[in-house]
Amino acid sequence: MNPITKLFNIDFPIIQGGMVWCSGYKLASAVSNAGGLGLIGSGSMTPQLLEEHITKCFATTQKPFGVNVPLLYPHAEEHIHTIIRTGVKIVFTSAGNPNTFTSLLKENGITVVHVIANSKFALKAEKAGVDAIVAEGFEAGGHNGREETTTLCLLPIIRKITQLPLIAAGGIFDGKSWLAAEILGADAIQIGTRFAACKESSAHDNFKHAVRNAMEGSTQLSLKKLTPVRMLKNAFYEEVAKAESMGANIESLKLLLGKGRSKKGIFEGNLTEGEMEIGQAAALLSREESASDIIEDLIAGHEAAKRKVAASTKP
Amino acid sequence: MNPITKLFNIDFPIIQGGMVWCSGYKLASAVSNAGGLGLIGSGSMTPQLLEEHITKCFATTQKPFGVNVPLLYPHAEEHIHTIIRTGVKIVFTSAGNPNTFTSLLKENGITVVHVIANSKFALKAEKAGVDAIVAEGFEAGGHNGREETTTLCLLPIIRKITQLPLIAAGGIFDGKSWLAAEILGADAIQIGTRFAACKESSAHDNFKHAVRNAMEGSTQLSLKKLTPVRMLKNAFYEEVAKAESMGANIESLKLLLGKGRSKKGIFEGNLTEGEMEIGQAAALLSREESASDIIEDLIAGHEAAKRKVAASTKP
User: pLDDT digit string (tens) for B20-45?
Assistant: First the structure.
C-alpha cells in the first residue's frame, strides 16, 4: 500500500507540481483524470481567478485535485479562505512557514502537504501537523532553497528524520528517476518541468519551445540575494547575472526584477525580457506530449526499470 | 558482465575518487585490496612524492590501482611521465582537455578515464579515445562544473549520447544511491566524500571530524569566478562569500585565495583559514569507518536495495 495514493485516493503516486502561469484547471484536471494528482498553482492568480479555476476543475474532473499556495505571494491568506469555502480537499503550501495555515486547514478537513528543502523545515512541518512533505532539490525550477541540496542528497537526509509520507521533487523526469527517488526513500514524485511544457499547460508556446530546446547548463539558480529562483538563461538572466557579478545589492536587484517578470516570460512568451522559471530536467525534454502521455510513459518506464533491477537480482 | 569491472579487472564497480590531500597510497591500496579501484590523487603532490606513493602502492597491493591527474595543476605533465615510467596502468584525468594526454597514455598501454560535467566534454572525451567517463554532478566536493547540473539530471543526459562505460560521481554515498545511479544509466560509482573521511585517508583528523559533523547546507559551491569548488562553510568561506557578494573581481579573489589553502584545511586541519573541499554527501556521514567497512556496507546496501525493488515487482 502506497501511503501517498492512500492519502489522496489516487491511482498513481504522481503529483503535478503547482506552477505559476502553467497549472490552471486544464492541466490539473487532465493530470487527475489520468490517475495522478493535479494541482492548481495559485501563485499567479487573483482570488477571483483562483475561484474560477477551482469551479472549472470540479466541473472537469471527478477525481481528487489540489491547490498549491506559495505563502510568499500577496494573496496567500485570501487563497486559503477561497480553498476552504469552495470545498477543495488537498492543499500544498510552499515558500513559507508551515505553522501559518496548517491548523486552520486541518480543522476544515483538508489534507495538507508542505514543500521543504532542508531538514529544519521538514521537522517544522511535521510539528505543524502536515500529512506529508515534498522534499525539493536544487535542480527544481522556480523558487528554491538556499542550501542548494540536490534531490539525490536531500531525500536520504529527510527520510532519516521523519516517517511522514515523502514526495520527491526536483529533477524527476521519467520512470527511471521515479524509481531512483523511491530507492532513496520517496513514496511518490512531484513533476513540474515536464508538465509545464505539456499540451494542457497554460504557458505560452514560445516558453514551451524554449524549454524543449534547453540543454544542460541552460538553467541557473539566480537572484539568490532575493528569493533564489531557477530560470532559463536569457537576456533578462544575463542582465541579472552581470549585476550580481558586480555586487548589486537587494534594492537594485528588486528594481531590475520589477513586477510581472514571470508572467512576461511564461504566460506572454517574451523570451528576452521574461523570467522563464524551469528546472534542470528541461534538458531531457524534446517532444510535445499531453498530460496523459506523460503519466503513461512514467508508469511504463517505472515498470520497465523495476523489471530490469529484478532481473539482475539473485533470488 | 559489468563493463567497468571488466575494464579495470576489479571485483566491484566502486571507484575511490582521487582527492587532494586525502588519497595517497594508504587509501588507494586499502580500497583496491577491498575489491574496488583505489586512485592516488596526484593533484596535491610533487613529482617526487607521486613517485613515492606509486612505489608504495605497488608494494601494498597486488590489485589494480590508478592515479587521478587534475590537468589544471602545474605538475600535470610531469605526473603523466612519472605514471608511464613507473608502470601504472590506469589514469583518471580531470579538470582539463581530454585531448592533451589521452593518445600518449593509450600508446603506453594505459587505460584512460576522463571526468566530465557536461555532454560537450563527454563527446570530446569519447573522440579523444578514452576508455570510460566519470559524470560528476553539482553535489560533488572539490572542483566542479560551471553548469551546476546535478547527478540525477546529468546521468541520463550523458547515457543518452554515449555508449562508453559510465561512472557516476557526486552525491553517491551508499548502496541505495549506487542502485539509483545504475538505474539512471551508470555502470559504476565513484565515491569521494565518504572515503575522504575514512581511517586510511591522509586528511587531518580535524577535517574528518568537521566532515562528519556537516549537515545539509554545510557545503557550498564557491569561487565561481575562478574555478568553482565545493567546500565546507567556515571563516575562509564566509570571507570569500562576502567578497563575492560585493562584486570582487578575479584578481582580488586570487589574492584572497592565496596559495596552499586546501593543504591548510584538509591536511593541516586549520578549520578557520583552510579550504575544506568536500561534497554534499558529508551531511550523510556520521561514524568513523575503514575503507573496507565502506566497501562492505556499499555491497550489502546495494544488494538489499535491489531485493526490495525485486520484491515489489510483478513477475
Answer: 999 999 999 999 999 999 999 999 99
Averaged pLDDT score across all residues of chain B: 97
Q: Give the pLDDT confidence of A20-36 residue by residue, as tens digits.
A: 999 999 999 999 999 99
With contacts defined as CB-CB under 8 Å, which chain B residues touch A282? Answer: none
Domain spans of chain B, in order of start: 10-202+282-309, 205-280
- Does B139 sit within 8 Å of A283, measured CB to CB? no
Instruction: List, as one string, the DSSP characters of A230-262.
Output: EEE-SHHHHHHHHHHHTT--HHHHHHHH-SSHH
Assigned architecture for domain A9-202+282-307: Alpha-Beta Barrel (3.20)
Taking an 8 Å cut-off on Cβ atoms, the answer to whether B309 and A307 are in contact is no
Q: Is B309 on the interface with A (CB under 8 A)?
A: yes
pTM of the model: 0.98
pLDDT digits (tens, 9 = 90+) for B129-144: 999 999 999 999 999 9
Contact at CB, A156 and B146, closer than 8 angstroms: no
Give how far A292 is from chain B: nearest CA, Å: 23
Q: Is the dihedral of CA A300, A303, A306, A310 positive or negative?
A: negative
The complex's ipTM works out to 0.97
Closest residue in chain B to residue A242, using alpha carbons only: B247
Name the CATH superfamily housing domain B10-202+282-309: Aldolase class I (3.20.20.70)
